[in-house]
Amino acid sequence: MSGTKTPGLPGSDQAHPAAVGVVDPTDLAGRLDAGERIVLLDVRWALGDDHGHEHYLAGHLPGAVFVDLETELSDKPGPGTGRHPLPAAERLQAAARRWGLRAGDEVVVYDNSGGLAAARAWWLLRWAGHRQVRLLDGGLAAWLEAGLPVQTGEVTAPVGDVVLSPGQLPALDADEAARLARDGVLLDARAGERYRGETEPIDPRAGHIPGARSLPAASLLGAAGRVLPPAELNAALAAVGVTQPGPGEDAPAVGVYCGSGVTASFLAAALATVGVEAVLYPGSWSEWSADPARPAATGAQPG
């Protein structure tokens, strides 16, 4: 792992930095109306619901292309992997070209769950070297709330020619996640009851990586399904030990994980809006808990 030093948190009086991580629906609509080229990706997905494409066909942002998280943003799981392994380079590039992506394109990704699924595409594209990508703040719900139009049916984009090069962002393996939980800050993006080990509906064992701290991804969404403003985000981060470093101090390295590397990508995107570059553990709890040699902690404390 490299490049895990994290910048300090900015002051809480900053305006919401829409240029980093997220974009406002009305701002996006204005730019689209002005004829700017922006590739729109619809990444509607929810665990246990395989009807994302049907929801897309019923109504999506005009011009948006549907992205399948299971087949395009993940490889099939196998021994020693989590439930959503990172896709092979050639598969991800072929998918991105199907979406119409060209070198230098700006990309906006969205879903209908506040970005909890779409952030997977946000992280993957950046990891593969395409940095001009943002989340639609509040997703489809915020777009509709703003009275903006939708389109029905399939959109087939002209095939793009983007060249992707995976590995352009650092990522954690299990050993590195364990070290970061001990020596830095490792954040668990799952719901609190799963972190505490009270329930585990999906993965082999209940609990969390020893030393990891709980910061559920959904807790960083406000009532309107948008990313919390900076002051509230900074307060949530301070509560789990991610604080402004003192003079001459380095900010702690920050890592994120979840069940299979999807919602933790949203945590990384939300943290990016306040200048925190969190490193993803893609295998996450699904990989960790499948290895009987890896310990599991339970309860509300990191352990």
TrEMBL record:
InterPro entries: Rhodanese-like_dom (IPR001763), Rhodanese-like_dom_sf (IPR036873), Thiosulphate_STrfase_CS (IPR001307), TST/MPST-like (IPR045078). PROSITE patterns: RHODANESE_1, RHODANESE_3. The keyword Transferase applies. Keywords: Pyruvate, Repeat, Transferase. It comes from the Bacteria. The keyword Repeat applies. It holds the Pfam family Rhodanese. GO terms for molecular function: thiosulfate-cyanide sulfurtransferase activity. CDD domains: TST_Repeat_1 (cd01448), TST_Repeat_2 (cd01449). Residues 34-152, 180-297 form the Rhodanese domain. PANTHER family: SULFURTRANSFERASE, THIOSULFATE SULFERTANSFERASE. This is Thiosulfate/3-mercaptopyruvate sulfurtransferase. It comes from Parafrankia irregularis. The lineage of its organism: Bacteria, Bacillati, Actinomycetota, Actinomycetes, Frankiales.
